[in-house]
Design brief:
The complex is a heterodimer of chains A (365) and B (228). Chain A is 61% helix and 13% strand. By secondary structure, chain A is α+β, with helices and mostly antiparallel strands. In chain A, strands 2-4-5-7-6 form a five-stranded mixed beta sheet. In chain A, 25% of the residues are buried. A five-stranded parallel beta sheet of chain B has the order 2-1-3-4-5, sandwiched between helices. In chain B, strands 6-7-8-9 form a four-stranded antiparallel beta sheet, covered by helices on one side. A three-stranded antiparallel beta sheet of chain B has the order 10-12-11. Chain B has 228 residues and is an alpha/beta fold. Chain B folds into two domains: 118 residues, Response regulator (Rossmann fold, 3-Layer(aba) Sandwich), CATH 3.40.50; 96 residues, Arc Repressor Mutant, subunit A (Orthogonal Bundle), CATH 1.10.10.10. In chain B, β6 and β7 form a beta hairpin. Classes of the chains: A alpha+beta (365), B alpha/beta (228). Chains A and B meet through β1, α7 and α8 of A and α8 of B.
């Protein structure tokens, strides 16, 4: 497989980049040019060498083009050779037996060329398909591994803990019982989070995501996200810095709340206890700009590009999370025709900047 | 001391079992139905004080069951459903549901919503004074006091607050609020609602960003909470 990959790429570039119509035009042009040059040279090199020149041209065309342009080249060059070069000139008549043989053989070689070209293209196509399939399988396996881990861990906890509680012979202390129960609770919340992510992702993937824009007070959206995260943010400092007198923005409140939820949740999970997470909102050039920063370690600079990819997880990152949160955030922001950017702060820590072009309203009560 | 009658209409036996245990241990008496037909019959035979209704029933769409119940049943109906889209929630509320809980929900949340819905039931007398701890609304003299100090409200702000107070604990949809306070031609002008809610919160909430009274139900509406 591997040794084939380069030639595939090369011929793919040619056959893909030159579309079918141009392949025919170029074929005719090349054959005509070579024929004209040969015509002037035929006094020196003899008309039989011209046949070789045309064959070489044909072979080179066959390297890059599909079967039909090559077949066309074969017919055209055979006719030209016969008409202009084989004596008597300017007729299709062939007097000499030797020339008749040469013409027939020329034609056969040209045909074989075309067929070989076709077969090679076939093989390349299949190899390409196989490679694609192998890549898809690899991605699918990574996805499945990550998913099955993230889903099965909490399920295992729930089954194990509840089995333990149900076993009559067990001599569990009250403290152990209550520990097992809280394990079940934590595991099911975690499971719920994963399912939520998967549902959101499939909403995005289906392409049927409908943006329902409505006027919103950005303060309300931020605090609604924070409220949903109440239980997660207890050991972090949340600093909210919304500019005074911002206009109302026309956004999909539900989606934007989810975007903020995912960004803040991400920051909470991947920064140490007592880290500060700052959420800023402003209106710049008729756009709603929201910035979420933290003072954690930030992202490795070579991975910043990839964090929004589906199922991408940082190398050496701790378990938990499916690698979906940030790609969902990106998908929802892009559904608003907005952008989301990640960079590292000068002082350390990650900085997400969301910019969404939107209508604004400065209505006063 | 509770002893309110609650009817559960849900086709999932596991959910019914869970709710039964939860509710009985909180002194409610429980009746169950596994489909729309049995649910409607049970509600008619022994009208409960509150109905917990699932929208995904095997024999009939939950929205239509809700409509049928609302033709005669006036006590609280709380929807419990896995359907989480704002459209479903708004539709159910517009069809007369008092509240909407998305499965999975936390037990504490369920009990709070039930308490609040049942309280709404007893609040329906014509008491002109609504006293919510630090907030007192006198509907007859149209005055509002916070921590014993009179708050100045504009006419629109007062109308909005009074509407909330009369519907304590109930989710009021954007559409409903706009229609009631500003009129039918304003039902799509949600910017008015946003601005006035923000304004009202500044006046009655201790922290307008972390409201204790006017709670945001994202994409759906607002809920007024008095206690807890």
């Amino acid at each position: 497989m591997l040794y084939q990959s380069k030639p595939i790429a090369l011929t793919k570039i040619f056959s893909n980049s030159i579309n079918k119509k141009y392949q025919y035009i170029i074929t005719v042009l090349v054959i005509l040019i070579v024929s004209v040059i040969s015509y002037f040279l035929s006094g020196i090199i003899g008309y039989r060498v011209v046949a070789y020149l045309l064959l070489v041209t044909l072979s080179i065309l066959a390297l890059f083009f599909g079967i039909f342009p090559v077949l066309l080249a074969a017919f055209l060059s055979a006719l030209i050779w016969d008409f202009f070069f084989i004596p008597p000139h300017f007729t299709f008549r062939v007097d000499n037996t030797e020339d008749a043989f040469l013409l027939i053989m020329y034609f056969i070689i040209a045909m074989v060329h075309s067929v070989l070209t076709f077969k090679i293209r076939q093989i390349q196509k299949e190899a390409g398909k196989k490679e694609e399939k192998a890549n898809a399988l690899k991605l699918y396996n990574t996805l499945l591994n990550s998913l099955s881990h993230e889903l099965r861990t909490p399920i295992a906890t729930i089954i194990g803990a509840s089995d333990n509680l149900l076993m009559k012979a067990n001599n569990l202390t009250e403290e152990n019982k209550s520990n097992l129960l809280s394990e079940i609770s934590v595991a099911s919340l975690r499971l719920n989070q994963q399912v939520e992510n998967l549902l959101n992702m499939s909403r995005l993937e289906s392409g049927f995501i409908q943006i329902k824009k409505d006027w919103c007070d950005i303060n309300e959206v931020i605090y609604a996200a924070i409220k949903r995260l109440e239980e997660n943010i207890k050991e972090h400092v949340i600093d909210i810095d919304v500019k005074e007198n911002l206009p109302l923005f026309k956004l999909d409140v539900g989606l934007m709340e989810q975007v903020l939820y995912n960004l803040i949740y991400n920051a909470v999970i991947y920064t140490p206890v007592n880290s500060v997470i700052t959420i800023k909102a402003d209106c710049i050039n008729e756009s709603c700009v929201i910035i979420v920063t933290d003072n954690g370690k930030g992202f490795p600079s070579d991975e910043i590009e990839k964090v929004f990819e589906k199922f991408y997880r940082l190398k050496y990152s701790k378990t938990g999370g499916t690698g979906l949160g940030l790609s969902i955030a990106k998908g929802f922001v892009e559904a608003h025709h907005g952008t989301i950017r990640l960079e590292n702060n000068y002082s350390g820590g990650a900085k997400f900047t969301i910019t969404i072009p939107t209508e604004t309203s400065y209505l006063k009560p | 001391m509770n002893n309110a009658q609650i009817l559960i209409i849900d086709d999932e036996a596991q959910i019914r079992k869970l709710l039964e245990i939860t509710l009985q241990s909180n002194n409610y008496s429980v009746n169950e139905a596994a489909n729309a037909r049995d649910g409607l019959i049970a509600a008619a035979n022994h009208p409960p004080d509150l109905i917990l209704l699932d929208l995904g029933l095997p024999d009939e769409d939950g929205h239509s069951v809700l409509k049928k119940l609302r033709e005669w049943y006036t006590k609280p109906i709380i929807i419990i459903s896995v359907l989480s889209s704002e459209d479903d929630i708004v539709r159910a509320l517009d069809n007369g549901a008092n509240d909407y809980l998305i499965k999975p929900f936390r037990t504490g949340e369920l009990l709070a919503r039930i308490r609040s819905a049942l309280r709404f039931l007893t609040n329906e007398d014509d008491n002109p004074i609504i006293d919510f701890n630090n907030l007192v609304i006198d509907l007859s003299s149209r005055t509002v006091k916070k921590n014993n100090e009179t708050i100045k409200l504009t006419a629109t702000e007062y109308t909005l607050l009074a509407l909330f107070a009369k519907n304590e604990g109930k989710v009021l949809t954007h559409h409903y609020l706009l229609n009631q306070v500003w009129g039918p031609s304003y039902t799509n002008q949600s910017q008015y609602l946003r601005v006035y809610i923000a304004q009202l919160r500044k006046k009655i909430e201790d922290d307008p960003n972390r409201p204790a009274h006017i709670i945001t139900e994202s994409g759906v509406g607002y809920r007024f909470i008095a206690r807890e």
